Amino acid sequence: MSTAIQKITPFLWFDHEAEEAAHFYTSIFDDAAIGKTTRYGEEGARVSGQPPGSVMTIAFRLAGQEFVALNGGPHFTFSPAISFVVRCDSQTEVDRYWDQLAAGGEERAQQCGWLQDRYGVSWQIVPAALDTLLDAAEPQRASRVMQALLKMKKLDIEALERAWAGGPQITATHS
Predict the structure, then answer these.
(1) pLDDT for residue 168 is more than 80
(2) Residue 100: which residues within 8 A CB-CB, separation 6 or more?
(3) Global pTM?
(4) Is pLDDT above 80 for 110?
(5) Which residue(s) pair with 103 in the sheet?
(6) Which of 26, 98, 129, 147 is deepest in the core (most CB within 10 A)?
(7) Which of helix, strand or coil describes residue 83?
(8) Which H/E stretch holds residue 97?
(9) 129-145 burial string, b = 16+ CB within 10 Å, else e?
(10) Strands lying side by side in the sheet with 11-14
(11) Interatomic CA distance for residues 78 and 32, integer angstroms
(12) Helix-strand-coil split of the chain, %, nearest 5
């Protein structure tokens, strides 16, 4: 793990899957590593309901971003109100992150590149160029892109670029 201290670190609350999730995520992303693991002592175990000696927190890095996962028990669950956006440079990258993060999870009922992984964490897998394709300075093009985007689950860069250029609109949901 890096020696510089990150100002803001996402802290993810799991029931008891923190270590498993950290290993899952680090297997998917580049520049990823497992960091420090802390374990529950007697006092913390008693308060949390977790077994003494079990993983309390595990630090990990994904694409240079530091995270911490906690085994805190079933008191809280994840919600799509918070998600992690993964910006991708190619359709191959979109497909890779989508397929790996969605494995064992469920695609969000919502469109536009959202999925929920096997732990309930929400992700948005989007092309890096999406902000440019939705630029308000190009309202007609942005409108066509938004229309195409709203028909997709997993995003299709070529179809979004076609919509921006004024080409034929897609008619089916890309999955």
Answers:
(1) no
(2) 27, 28
(3) 0.88
(4) no
(5) none
(6) 98
(7) strand
(8) helix 91-102
(9) ebeebbeeeeeebbebb
(10) 11-14, 65-71, 55-62, 33-39
(11) 22
(12) 30, 25, 45
Please, what's the b/e burial string for 59-85 (b: 16 or more CB within 10 A of its CB; e: otherwise)? bbbbeeebbbbbbbeeeeebebeebbe
Residues counted in the chain: 175
Cα–Cα–Cα angle for 11, 15, 18, nearest 5°? Answer: 55
pLDDT exceeds cutoff 60 at 171: no
Contacts of 24 (CB under 8 A, 6+ apart): 117, 118, 119
Handedness of CA 162, 163, 166, 168 (dihedral sign): positive
Enclosing H/E stretch for 34: strand 33-39
Q: What is the CA radius of gyration of the chain?
A: 19
In this predicted model, what pLDDT tens digit does every residue of 10-61 receive, in sequence order?
999 999 999 999 999 999 999 999 999 999 999 999 988 999 999 999 999 9
Question: 94, exposed or middle or buried, with CB in 10 Å at 0-12, 13-18, 19+?
Answer: buried
Tell me the C-alpha distance between 158 and 127, whole Å.
Answer: 10
Please state, in angstroms and rounded to a whole number, the distance separating the CA atoms of residues 129 and 170. 19
Helix (H) or strand (E) holding 114: strand 114-116
| Alpha-carbon span 169 to 98, nearest angstrom | 23
Question: Mapping DSSP to helix (H, G, I), strand (E, B) and coil, where does residue 66 land?
Answer: strand
